[in-house]
Structures are given as C-alpha cells and as structure tokens.
Amino acid sequence: MAFLKFIFHGMSGFLDVLGKVGKGLRSDDDFFDRLSHRYTAIIFIVFALVVSTKQYVGDPITCWTPTHFTDAHEDYTNNYCWIKNTYYTAFDERIPEKWEPHEHIGYYQWVPIVLMVQALMFYIPCIVWRLLNGRTGVDMNTIVKSLSGNESLNPDAREGTIRYLVRHLDRYFDHQRDLSKGCFANCKQLISKHCICLFCGRRYGNYLIALYLIIKVIYLANVIGQLFLLNAFLGTNYHIYGFEVIGDLMNKRSWKESGQFPRVTLCDFEIRFLGGVSNIHRHTVQCVLPINLFNEKIYIFIWFWLVFVSAATVFGFLTWLSMLFQRERRHYIRKYLKLMERIESNCDTKMTHAFIEKYLRQDGVFILKLLGRNTNDVVVAEMIDALWEYFTEQKRNIHPGNGTEIDV
C-alpha cells in the first residue's frame, strides 16, 4: 500500500509542476482536455527521451558469451541479439530446440517510437478542436487572455475589454440567429433545445457545444484505445496489468519477473566459418536487458496514469453533458444574474428566459462556462452582467415602453 500512496502522491505533485509549466499556454478548453493533450503528451515524450537515452547512450543489452569469444565476437553478439530480438524462457523450463516454437520479444526496440506516437495521438483531438473552433469566429483563447491578462487589472481597461468582447459575442449570436430564420428552421431549433442529437449546427445555436462533446468522446476513445494498443504492442494482458501489480502488493508479494518485461532472455544465432556450409555453428546465449528495468516501471506508471485519465475524462464529459439540459443552463446563468443583483431570487421572467434561451442559447452558455473554467467566477459574473445590460438595452430600443415583451 505504501507504493500505491507513493504513486498517487507522485501524480499529484507532478500535476502541480505541469500546471506551472502550462501556465501561459492556450486556454481554449478545460483541465480535463489539457490532462490529455498537454500533461499526458509531455509524460510520454519524457519517457520516450529517457528510454532513447538508455538505448543509444548506454548498453541496452549485454549477452554472456563463451570464453573463447573475442571482444569483436561479443560486440557482434550484443548487436545481433538486440536487432534480431530475444525470447524468454523461465529458469525452471528447458531451453527449446531450434525447431520448437518460441515467441520472440521484439517490442523494446520500438518503445521510444511507440511512446512518441502515443503522445501525438493524445494531441490530435486538441488539433481538431482548435481547427474547427477557429472557423466559428469565436476565439476562446483570445477572450480568456484578454480577461485574465495584466491589462485587465486596470478598471478602465478592463471595462473597455469587456465592452469589446460583449459586442464581439453579440455579433456571433446575431449571425447564428440570421442562419436560423424560417418556419421549418424554427421547428428544428425548438427540437434541438431538448435533443441535440437530432439537430445541431450554427443555426440551432448549439454548434460549439456539440463539437466540444464530440471532441470529449474522441479524448475518451483515445485513452481507452491506448490501453488496448499497449496490450497488442506488448503481447500481454496489459489492460489488467495494474490489477495484477496491486494484487501482488496487497498480498505482500514481490513483483514477479515474467515474460512481459524479462530482465534475462535467450538469443539464438549462427556463425559461419570458412570451409563450407556444414561449418555453421549455432549458439544460444543468455542476455540481460537492463532497458526492461526502465520499461517495466514506465509501463506500470503509464497503466495507472491512463486509468486515472480515463476516469477524469469521463467525469469531465458528464459535467459538460449537463449543459444540454435547459434547467442546468438556466440555473447556471441565473446564479450569476442574482449575484450581480440583476434579478430577484425566485424570479424567472420572460426577459430572463429570452436572454438565456433566445439570445445566449446553448453556445452562449457554453462560451461563458468555458470562460469560467479558465478564469474565475468574478470574470464570468462581469461578462454575464455586461451581456445582460447590452441585451436589455437592445430590447428597450426595439420595444420602447415595454421591457417584458421579448421577440428575439
């Protein structure tokens, strides 16, 4: 159990360090996304560099050769066995003959490349999100940076920034509403408020939230697929590997050496001497793989980390899924309107309904919530307050003397 505590404390400390490293980078998603495309990608890249250093700077394999072998023979044996792979046989088992089947272990040469590919796979959903999000006209990263930068500490500059962002978002909302005009479009828009899976897009006001949920699903599919990818790569039951380690620790058993990450393996090779085909000598040597000492610890950590990221990604997906429900959207916006004393505690007027469901719509609430995930409640409250003021002013200009009759 002490080892498990060490692992989880280490993860917590590592996240704190990565959080400081990631400060100042793009902020157009939430922590659960950055856990995959930023922190996990960094972890895999670091591990790839560690293994590469051990492979190409140190001695990844050392074979025990016969006494009559010269230094050149030893170098040849080590290089040959590293390139042609080795196979594992337990010490209490008989060494198989040449014609007998034995499974070679060939993954360790590819570990750095596979780790780098995995890092890239964790980053791909982020690339897709930024490419598609950038085409909407709403740059979340710019909005977050504008409201969280040093220039926003000045009250006048902060107020000017908020006014500019409010006009920017208002133009985006207007463009969405222009696309949604028409009788049939209004019917589909009404359905999309309650069932996003039927109709989604800019004209229905739910393009961003639908896109973001799809990206969340891609993140989740990626991290779960990574476990099965490693299982296929290592040729083991890697998706239950961590449970086996936990079982050994809880039963106070030492980690057993197995065929998954063997330190000691066997290697067969043939040497041809001058004098004809019959002068082929077959040798079986015993080799030690120090690199597997690193690989085993790395993949134990990776297993626990992937399980942790999977659970965190599911939790993050569910928190955003709640934004599809009208009740949750109203509760989120009304909370800040009451905080800014724009509405009364138990008030749910036509104006409030129009502001949330017809003006902001699902994408507007999504933008504000994502802003809150990257800043703080004060910033979100000020933005909602400014949007509310801008919205009510527009309605008063459209309907002078009647502030409750809303038709957006």
Automatic annotation (TrEMBL):
Chain segments annotated as transmembrane: 39-57, 107-132, 209-234, 298-325
The keyword Ion transport belongs to this UniProt entry's keyword annotation: yes
Keyword terms: Cell membrane, Ion channel, Ion transport, Membrane, Transmembrane, Transmembrane helix, Transport
GO cellular component: a single term: plasma membrane
GO terms for biological process, alphabetical: monoatomic ion transmembrane transport
Source species, domain of life: Eukaryota
Record's bilayer topology term: Multi-pass membrane protein
Subcellular localization(s) per the UniProt record: Cell membrane
PANTHER family (alphabetical): INNEXIN, INNEXIN-5
Described function: Structural component of the gap junctions.
Family, per entry: Belongs to the pannexin family.
Protein known as: Innexin
Source lineage: Eukaryota, Metazoa, Spiralia, Lophotrochozoa, Brachiopoda
Recorded name of the encoding gene: LOC106177223
